[in-house]
Amino acid sequence: MAVSSCLTKPLFLFLLVSCIFISTIKATEDEDTIYGDECDYEIVVSTGKSQGPTNYRLSVVLTTKNGENISTSDFVGEWGDMGRYHTFFQADSESGFMETGPCFTTSFCNIEIGGGNGSNGGGRLKPHWYVNNITVITRGDKINDRVRTFHFFGKHHNIARTNPPVSYGNCRKSHKKKSQKKKH
Question: Which parts of this chain are annotated as the region Disordered (predicted)?
């Protein structure tokens, strides 16, 4: 009986330490990716002197510094937050959008706006869409409100095409050292 008691205590301690170690690793992984809670993402598009694409299916991808993202293939239809019959992207106005999704640990650093190859000229917007800025506000229980405004290359940037997508931001990608060949 003394032998089994001597083996039980070390085994118990080993299992206890292992469980604590594994739970610590899991908690660290969770902190690096997303919170368990959901956040509300409010997006405000400030249109310039020309009306934007009212009957056009826009896709939007918002990317964080860690490479995580939220996206939609129907920006107005899925995220539009101004009523069913509202005309979005009027000249010199603001259009509001709302999405609920996972809370990310880092802020958004890039926005991409795209469109399909439908009847609207393969992505060409008519008339061209002038965007002053797009502001993204992140709200959640475990984070302070985050605000990021994407200014499209100065005031009244002309977005003529959304295919290929228009992208704006300053996400820093991890730079791997590449071996450079010497010129002879």
Answer: 163-184
* 125, containing H or E segment: strand 124-140
Rounded average pLDDT over 73-89? 87
Q: Is the pLDDT of residue 79 over 80?
A: yes
Residue 108 contacts residue 64 (beta carbons within 8 Å)? yes
Task: Please state which of the four CATH numbers 3.40.30.10, 2.60.60.20, 3.40.190.10, 3.40.50.970 is assigned to the domain occupying 38-169.
Answer: 2.60.60.20
Phi, psi of 154 (to 5 degrees): 95, 180
Write the CA distances from 34 to 38, 143, 144, integer angstroms.
9, 11, 15
Asked whether the predicted pLDDT for residue 180 surpasses 50, the reply is: no
Does residue 164 have a cis peptide bond before it, meaning omega lies within 30 degrees of 0?
yes
Residue spans of the domains in the chain: they are 38-169
Indicate yes or no: pTM above 0.70. no
Q: Which amino acid is at 111?
A: I
